Amino acid sequence: MFLVAAAAVLALITTIIVRVTTADEPSRVTVMTRNLYLGGDITRPVRAALGRTGADAVRALGQANYELREIVDRTDFPTRSGLLAAEFAAARPDLIALQEVALWRHGPIELDQISRPDATDVDFDFLATLLADLQERGVGYDVVQQQQGSDVEAPAFPADAATDTADQGRDVRLTLQDVILIRQDSPVRVKGRGGAEFDQRLDIELGGATFTFQHGYAWADVEVGRHRLRFVATHLESQSAEVALAQATELLAGPAAVETTTVLACDCNSAPGSPAYALLTERGRFADQWLEAPDDPGPGFTAVLGELVNEPTAAGLDRRIDLVLARPAPGGAVTPELVNLTGNDPAGRGYQGLWPSDHAGVVVELELRNAR
To answer: What is the pLDDT of residue 220?
Structure first.
């Protein structure tokens, strides 16, 4: 009887030890941030029409928008999507933050309602194309959260159609999203999700109409082993450092205002030394995981290639604005075990020398520890 009781006590002690050890074991998760590139320079029609008035502004806007839409065809997202899918299949991140997930549509030209986004005929659906390409490569991903940003529409017509736009022109609509993906066979478990638009945005008057360029963020609360993590995907404003700083402030007061370990994966449009970067890493206490890497990973430049994304080299990548930032829960730790860039090797270009995007991607393998 004594031996039976002793064995039971020993089993209980062993169980407690195993449970304590398991709770203190680190977990690993691989995350990625990737700007898909909307396919052209969105500022092209803005620059053309800014400062003009009346019919002159509409003409400049329509012609430049027509040029933009032709460039989107040339930068050929179906080809680039295959390259991006190959990147993801090789890196196999558990969680991916995507920016500039574009939906291009067209509809009848409406010169009396220049900025109303109501076109419905789909030309390119970046998300659907990418998900299908991933499935073809045997690495399926699911959408965790989508957050719509800018949704803008304007007329587009060639220069020689300025007097007869109704026959030769059309309205072109661009909708952008930030999206979080999770690998279908990942052990990471989603426990919550959400997103919102930033209050701070960029409004521009063109041709007598207001065009709103909007960004936002998506977030997901996940479990990685016995560790909780909030993963935030966002894209800060590129045309105004002041707006980007205000949006970073909203991040700290919004999805990052939690005590859970938090990872921010973004096209931050804010390099080290910029006001938004300083706010996030100093007052927000986020650590730049590229700089925390155990070995020197190099400069980590991620932006930005030319509009046609067909350069022979990656020399245009001379800024580091695509970032993975992390802040542990109180008493915990987040450590990058591996950092890497994707999409910056000329050998990975596709048909007609196209790069996957005008940005490089950032992949980080993180080790998570709870408070002891």
So the answer is: 98
Lowest pLDDT segment from 23-27, 170-174, 256-260, 305-309: 23-27
Which residues lie below 8 Å from residue 26, measured CB to CB, with a gap of 6+?
367, 368, 369
283's CB contacts (< 8 A; 6+ apart) are 252
| Cα separation, 159 vs 107, whole angstroms | 19
Question: Pairing mode, if any, of strands 27-35 and 361-369?
Answer: antiparallel
Q: Domain for residue 127, yes or no?
A: yes
pTM for this predicted structure: 0.92
Q: Domain containing 226 — which CATH number?
A: 3.60.10.10
Adjacent-strand bridge partners of 97? 33, 180
Sign of the CA dihedral with 249 first, then 253, 259, and 263 last: negative
Assess if residue 174 is contained within a domain: yes
Query: Domain limits at 37?
Result: 27-369
- 106 part of a folded domain: yes
Instruction: Report the domain count for the chain.
Output: 1
Q: Please determine, for residue 17, whether its predicted confidence score (pLDDT) is greater than 50.
A: no
